[in-house]
Amino acid sequence: MQKQKWFGMMILAMVVCTGLACSAWGEGAAKKPPKMTADVVYVPTPHDVVDKMLEMVKVTKNDILYDLGSGDGRIVIQAAKKYGCKAIGFEIDDDRVAESLENIKKEKIGHLVEIRQQDIYTVDLRPATVITLYLLPEMNKKLIPQLQKMKPGSRIVCHDYSIPGAEYEQYYEMTSNEDGVKHYIYVYTVPLKLKETEK
After folding, report:
1. By the 8 A CB rule, do 195 and 170 touch?
2. What is the pTM assigned to this prediction?
3. Residue 188 CB-half CA count within 13 A
4. Banded pLDDT at 104 (limits 50, 70, 90)
5. Separation of alpha carbons 66 and 44, rounded Å
């Protein structure tokens, strides 16, 4: 009798434990990693502004272009299509990454263009020879230590917002035919010429 009772309790314990394990596994399986989104609202650069940015920073097929906060991938795609250079976009937002990968596929430019889902402040910029930015001024400023590690002679082009504390070498204003709005372009060369207060 004792044997039967002990065996019955063992079976019950196994059933309960198995049920708990299945329940825990089910909960774990149902959980998805949190969606990654950008800290700032995505505003795409008009295509004619993209063309002017790439022209001003003198992209060539020998360049490696990094676009920090690459959105739908339009800058890296256009750089690769027009100049034949290697172009890599860095984007944190899940939706924008998916959109840009679809655009790359549509343009059949995947042999030259890559999108990496990564925080821009963790990117090693040293392999790049050209950087494109459409970020807020405080974000540009935060990138200065990374930008200063790039090879001398590397170029940086910013849309609408300059790099606070750094002296730009070229400046251009244009009204986009796409949105009818005035846009501003700033070009820099590494090492950045920092104002005394920023050194």
Report:
1. no
2. 0.81
3. 25
4. very high
5. 16
Write the secondary structure of the chain as one string of H (helix), E (strand) and C (coil). Answer: CHHHHHHHHHHHHHHHHHHHHHHHHHHHHHCCCCCCCCCCCCCCCCHHHHHHHHHHCCCCCCCEEEEECCCCCHHHHHHHHHHCCEEEEEECCHHHHHHHHHHHHHHCCCCCEEEEECCHHHCCCCCCCEEEECCCHHHHHHCHHHHCCCCCCCEEEEECCCCCCECCCEEEEEECCCCCCEEEEEEEECCCCECHHHC
Cα separation, 34 vs 54, in Å, equals 35
pLDDT digits (tens, 9 = 90+) for 125-165: 999 999 999 999 999 999 999 999 999 999 999 999 999 99
The residue count of the chain comes to: 199
- Pair 100, 164: CB distance under 8 Å: no
pLDDT digits over 10-50, tens only? 333 333 333 333 333 333 434 555 565 556 688 999 999 99
CB atoms within 10 A of CB 48: 15
Q: Count other C-beta atoms under 10 Å from residue 175's C-beta.
A: 13
Residue of 43, 40, 51 whose CA lies nearest to 142: 40
